[in-house]
Design goal:
The complex is a heterodimer of chains A (589) and B (257).
Chain A: H1 26-29, H2 34-64, E1 69-70, E2 75-76, H3 79-115, H4 123-142, H5 165-168, H6 171-201, H7 214-245, H8 259-293, H9 300-313, H10 329-341, H11 343-357, H12 366-389, H13 391-397, H14 401-431, H15 437-463, H16 482-515
Antiparallel strand pairs in A: 1-2
Chain B: H1 2-6, H2 24-55, H3 72-105, E1 113-120, E2 123-128, E3 141-144, E4 146-150, E5 155-161, E6 166-170, E7 175-179, E8 185-189, E9 195-201, E10 214-219, H4 221-231, H5 236-246
Parallel strand pairs in B: 1-5, 4-10
Antiparallel strand pairs in B: 1-2, 2-3, 5-8, 6-7, 6-9, 9-10
Chain lengths: 589, 257
């Protein structure tokens, strides 16, 4: 598997190396290198983020300035188009942005590098995973342009609306939507196999289970959650396609089916899915916090056990999305208990993150700012979830903008803040260049401040009773007033500022990639194994005769009596000032 | 219970909208309780967080502490707050149970009147029981997008849908319930304020979801009696609606699935 060192992650062609397999641009298409596949996922996900962001721009413009011709859209947003835009914004941002970037791109990039492997265990399955994902991307994009337009029944796709074209008026769009989402699930099942197997089987000599960086643990737990939860939904999706295309009646009450069945299957997947994307982001954040606070994690094992407990609990909370959906009201009590209980491990994780800062030596670099912002903003998303988890309060808040603001305060920190944290932190490793810190900070503040200015007003609108997925509130006398409208305009203008600020990020990437200072192996003085190889790492990650050996856990920062305040995992003991390390005797299983 | 919740309603500051049903104040009270509890935790967590960031900024010559969190004394800083969170969770769960039970599980016996609410793409049909307060009798009054109820009367509603999911939501009453084709869901409300209020469809139901609005007219006894008397003769619109709703299944009890 180990080939001569070829710089595949980089834009330059190194054709002086003799190697087999496809040449030229084809080597990017057919590469089995985990780093190339990670980049493919990353750039596909970022492209889709632009698509999803454009949709947000269009429907926010319609909400702020009803029935004007939206610049860039080419006309007034009709009610059907509005429904399709919000549906596909949600679908794309979760399934084609959060999952490919956080789980697939960083999972692929980091797992082999952090456990000291030359590649994934099944490189060809890995390649197949991206190729299936790429097809699913084409399917979902195509679904927007077919006769009748893209699917418009909300990203939750509740039947009978989603199951019957006479109700949803998008006969082709809704079927392509389900097929696209189904293919995307297949891609992540293939990827998840690799993540789990690689952690289990390819760790460097000396690396025990509790020497693995937390981000790897979290990505693998997330993959397990995904694989356990997605089966029922895939079955449900197949039944939905059958209902749409060959006239079965799984969800049709007239033929003995039940529309609520879909809701159970969807949310049985849908709630663990929140943790599937949350955990990689939390993992990224703890790596960055420990590095820039020069601190050991406050309770490494506590974090792992808490994450596993969260994962298990997340399978028992799904019906809190259905409190008022017509389920037996007694069920709401059970799911109120489980939902509020899940606040305990999540609060514990937040406490651990905050405690890790205690006694640190904190440097506010751009990645650290993103990581700290994740904690501060995610807390808002977490505490507002309690309102919705208490079934009594959910009667009022269900399907209002309060819900919408709540889950954007969880998903935005996850998918956007977490991604920027990871991207700016590992950019030197991925591209071999340092990013511009000053531009990075401008980008940070111009994203974080408008983000809060978008969604805090939406909490207020939700408390005022504004319900979701309405293109124009003029039909509702209580919501049509100037007060409400000015809040909507404020949120939209904040969105425009935030979207414009992303140009700084792209300019910074381009400029740093072109002319940034060359990145050393370990620019942040971090401990984990990816920092012990070249930036960017060669094909095979390390020279075959220099594969790393691990002597300790990844968070040995500021160990007393050592000159350096970090201690790379692969550095043998016997440094000038020897410290007794309990792990040292057990290396080399 | 109500007076306890009133404590949380500060004068002059209430982002929540008007209270116009007998149980709206219960829901608001629960919301205020949650706000108080999570607001406290939120401020404590964010406060400590930013304090640490300011206090432990990197300074030349100072080295970070080596704390692994295995020490019992250190662990207490995690376990104690975590037990407190659990305790507050129990408090919220108990209050939430009471509110939920009152609104969604404890159907008041012998209601003053009945009404049937039928959602369809993209209008609400209301079947008023008429003078005899019994549904499916000759004096039923059918209206579209206009619900007439008498103030302070306890109503049972039967919620149905003919095509896709809808959700019957009256924000000032704090009522919300999905309507499901093939089922009839029973619930109750008791209006306490006279006036005209919005009825929303809170579940996306297709192209016209954005315009699926209706009004509820809460009237005093005299006005309502006059409205009933004026509209009792069966109109053509109502006949059509009777045919439509005849296909709907028999009403089921609230606990029935």
């Amino acid at each position: 598997m180990v080939e001569p060192a070829v710089d595949l992650t980089h834009g330059h062609a190194h054709d002086d190396h003799a190697h087999h397999g496809p040449q030229g641009w084809l080597k990017y298409l057919w590469s089995t290198d985990h780093k190339v596949i990670a980049m493919q996922y990353m750039f596909t996900g970022m492209f889709m983020a632009l698509v999803g962001g454009f949709m947000a721009y269009v429907f926010r413009m319609q909400l702020a300035f009803p029935d004007i011709s939206v610049p860039g859209w080419g006309g007034v947003v009709s009610m059907g188009e509005y429904n399709s835009l919000v549906t596909n914004h949600g679908t794309i941002m979760i399934f084609w942005v959060a999952m490919p970037v956080l789980l697939a791109a960083f999972g692929n990039y980091l797992i082999p590098l952090m456990v000291g492997a030359d590649d994934m265990v099944f490189p060809k399955i890995n390649r197949l995973s991206f190729q299936v994902f790429f097809v699913s991307t084409i399917v979902i994009l195509a679904s927007l342009f077919v006769e009748g337009g893209g699917f418009a029944g909300a990203w939750t796709a509740y039947p009978p609306l989603s199951a019957d074209a006479t109700y949803n008026l998008t006969p082709l769009g809704s079927t392509l939507w389900v097929i696209g989402v189904g293919l995307e699930f297949v891609a992540f099942l293939l990827g998840g196999i690799n993540f789990i197997t690689t952690l289990m089987n390819s760790r460097a000599p000396g690396m025990r289970a509790f020497d693995v960086p937390l981000v790897v643990w979290m990505i693998v737990v997330a993959s397990i959650l995904f694989m356990l939860s997605v089966g029922p939904l895939l079955a449900g999706a197949i039944m939905l396609v059958f209902d749409q295309t060959i006239g079965t009646g799984f969800y049709n009450p007239a033929t003995g089916g039940d529309p609520i069945l879909w809701q159970h299957l969807f949310w049985f997947f849908g709630h663990p899915e929140v943790y599937v994307v949350l955990l990689p982001a939390m993992g990224v954040v703890i790596e960055i916090i420990t590095t820039f606070a020069r601190k050991k994690v406050f309770g490494y094992r506590i974090v792992i056990f808490t994450v596993v407990a969260t994962g298990v609990l997340s399978f028992f909370v799904w019906a809190h999305h259905q409190f008022i959906a017509g389920i037996d009201p007694r069920m709401a009590n059970i799911f109120t208990i489980t939902t509020l209980l899940i606040s305990v491990p999540i609060a514990e994780l937040c406490f651990v993150y905050i405690a890790t800062l205690y006694g640190g030596s904190i440097r506010l670099t751009t990645p650290m700012l993103w990581a700290l912002a994740f904690v501060a903003e995610f807390l808002i998303g977490g505490v507002t979830g309690i309102f919705l988890g208490a079934a009594g309060a959910d009667i009022y808040f269900h399907d209002t903008y309060f819900v919408l603001a709540h889950f954007h305060y969880t998903f935005f920190p996850i998918a956007i803040i977490g991604t920027y944290a990871a991207f700016t932190y590992w950019f030197p490793k991925m591209f071999g260049k340092m990013m511009d810190d000053r531009l990075g900070k401008w980008h940070f503040w111009l994203t974080i401040i408008p983000f809060n200015m978008i969604f805090i007003p939406l909490f207020v609108l939700g408390m005022g009773g504004q319900h979701r997925r309405i293109s124009n509130y003029s039909s509702f006398s209580e919501l049509a007033g100037d007060g409400f409208q000015s809040v909507r305009i404020f949120a939209t203008i904040s969105l425009l500022i935030m979207l414009a600020a992303q140009l700084i990020f792209f300019y910074n990437c381009w400029k740093s990639w072109r002319s940034g200072p060359k990145a050393p192996k370990n620019p942040w003085k971090a401990n984990s194994l990816e920092w012990t190889t070249e930036s960017p790492p060669p094909h095979g990650n390390w020279r075959p005769d220099r594969m790393p050996v691990v002597y300790r856990g990844p968070y040995e920062y500021s160990v007393p009596d050592r000159e350096e305040d970090y201690w790379p995992q692969n550095e043998p003991d016997g440094a000038p000032l020897q410290v007794v390390d309990p792990d040292a005797g057990e290396q080399g299983r | 219970m109500n007076s306890f919740f009133e404590f949380f309603r500060f004068e002059g500051f209430d982002p929540l909208i008007e209270v116009a049903s007998s149980y709206a104040a219960d829901i608001d009270g629960l919301i205020w309780l949650v706000l108080l509890v999570v607001g406290f935790w939120f401020l404590v967590a964010e406060g400590v967080f930013f304090w640490f960031i300011l206090k432990f900024r990197a300074q030349p010559g100072r080295r970070a502490d080596y704390i692994d969190g295995k020490n019992k004394k250190h662990k207490r800083w995690i376990t104690v707050p975590h037990l407190l969170v659990l305790g507050f969770d129990v408090l919220i769960i108990v209050v939430s149970f009471n509110v939920w039970y009152k609104i969604k599980m404890d159907l008041p016996e012998n209601p003053d009147c009945h009404v049937r609410v039928i959602g369809q793409q993209w209008a609400w049909t209301f079947q008023h029981a008429g003078a005899d307060c019994e549904l499916d009798t000759a004096d039923d009054i059918f209206t579209v997008d206009e619900l007439h109820v008498e103030n302070n009367k306890v109503y049972h509603f039967e919620l149905q849908a003919t095509d896709v999911l809808h959700s019957f939501s009256v924000p000032v009453w704090r009522i919300k319930q999905d309507a499901i084709p093939g089922r009839s869901i029973t619930g109750w409300f008791q209006p306490t304020e006279i006036g005209e209020f919005d009825v929303q469809c809170a579940e996306i139901c297709g192209f016209g979801h954005s315009v699926m609005a209706a009004q509820v007219m809460v009237e005093d006894a005299e006005t309502h009696a006059a409205w009933v008397a004026e509209n009792t003769p069966v109109t053509e619109v109502a006949e059509a609606a009777v045919e439509g709703s005849a296909a709907a299944p028999a009403p089921a009890g609230m606990e029935d699935r």
